[in-house]
Amino acid sequence: MDNKNRIRRKDTRPTEIVMCAMKLFVENGYFETNFQDIANEGHLARSTIYLYFKDKKSILKAALKKKFEENKSSLIDLNQDENDTFHERMAKILTRMQKITKDEFFKRFCIMMTELSAKDPEIAKIWKEEIFDKLQKIWASMCEEFNLDPKYREYIFNVLYSVFLMSCVSSVCFGKESPFMDFVSFSELTKADIQQGKFDWMLNHE
Prior knowledge:
Blueprint: H1 3-28, H2 35-42, H3 46-50, H4 56-75, H5 86-100, H6 104-119, H7 121-144, H8 150-174, H9 183-195
Helix pairs in contact: 1-2, 1-4, 4-5, 4-7, 5-9, 6-7, 6-8, 7-8
């Protein structure tokens, strides 16, 4: 391997390790997966992993960073048209979020994080900081230009992402027999309400 290829491989190694780990965490379980399993999956020495990550939680944190970067444009940060109205922006967000709920791996990843966070407060803190705090910050920035009252801004955020997360989890747990509305149906109803102006009362509050 020449020096150029060696440098390229070194640059991509952390991502390769994270992708192998994510696959094993979701398929076999976080607690059931060790560094040797990850090394075997990635066809590398276990000692190589320690060059980049001190423990599994540091890999999980990197995995959350990766998932956020992969999905933030769909979840909230849209390369938005500055001429969008609030209604148009909301409709775009809902449409993009619908697409994510079709990703089975993403949904299983959500279930894994929910279970881990219930068992380990440190993991819950990592999930909050790497995903939800970042989403809230971008969401607040997006809503600011529309002069949306902070309490309504928080209300919409909580409804939108709570239903999204519950839909991801319940669709895997219950399949077509889920007792909860799927996110696609929720989105279509919400978009219809937006189009009919049912959210207008939240706008332009001081």
